[in-house]
Fold this sequence. Notes:
This protein is mainly beta. Helix content is 12%, strand content 39%. The protein has a 6-stranded mixed beta sheet with strand order 13-10-15-20-17-18. Strands 1, 2, 3, 5 and 7 form a 5-stranded mixed beta sheet that branches. It has a 5-stranded mixed beta sheet with strand order 14-22-21-16-19, with helices on one face.
Amino acid sequence: MSLTRKFKWISFASLIGATVLVASAWRFNIDPIGIPNRDLPPIKGEERAVLTSAPNVPAPITRDYATKVIVELETIEKTMRLADSVDYTFWTFGGNVPGNFIRVREGDLVELRLKNAHHSSVPHNIDLHAVTGPGGGAAATLTMPGGESVLSFRALNPGLYVYHCAVSPVPMHIGNGMYGLILVEPKDGMPKVDREFYVMQSEFYVKPGEKGKPATLDMQKGIDEKPTYVVFNGSVGAIAGENALKANVGESIRLFVGNGGPNLISSFHVIGEVFDNVYGEGGSLVSQQNVQTTLVPAGGAAMVEFRAEKPGTLVIVDHSIFRAFNKGAIGMINVTGNDNPEVYKQVKGLGMAKH
Ligand SMILES: [Cu+2]
């Protein structure tokens, strides 16, 4: 066969191949390189989102259709405890750090009403990583003190997403506590578990307040990436000691883990447990099983699942370990119930020498 004829045959075969590929992609609503064409399901009815503050998570969605979900969120500047003897003037979504947890369903039409409290010193806005659109909604939601902005978006992609303020200077707004999580449940729902918790890591760069005034952000420490505190849920001890999360032996647990940064990547680990499932980077699939430590990027998230097999205290840490033991990145889950020596027991105690 001449070279020209060979070329013609190859071209013809490629054309047929491409046609078949496009035809089957059209049939399954997937484009030829595997990126889905997101369908916009019809919207039935309307409801108000139930928002929660950490470590609580709104109840799973039982709807099997898309609806209009109204989310009412207020940015509030507020002085609260950051660590023992350290009060800090936080900037918040909803009066807490991290901000309120938002839970919607894939395909929902979300109407986000963002209010900025009257006494705020500066404008705020919101960039939700779940949003497909300019700035994740930031430009559309710039809100003056005492004002309100309204953003409407379709939750196209399922997964767990960070939201944050994106007003300039952005590091100042994030560094002061303006971040939270939004979960877009897949349209077929998530497997049921016994307990769900909201855990968000972040760090604070502290300039001590003068004459008894609350501490504020030290921009230079932020630029140098030298945090004073690294914490879960907005303050040292927020989910430790008396505030520890609680579960019973035998229960399945899902942690919605976020990282507000502003700078550090978290080596997220639970001492005394193995993550049975990890939804890496907050995506909608279990991407790995039987994981010891999972990375949670700044401005990113992950979901981890495990079963509490043994009574005792599970310790949540950033395994960049000085952050845990010297800067506050420690949380706890107190597990109560019957002992389970088949799984774990001490066989012999302190190996003291006999005299
Ligand atoms: Cu802000």
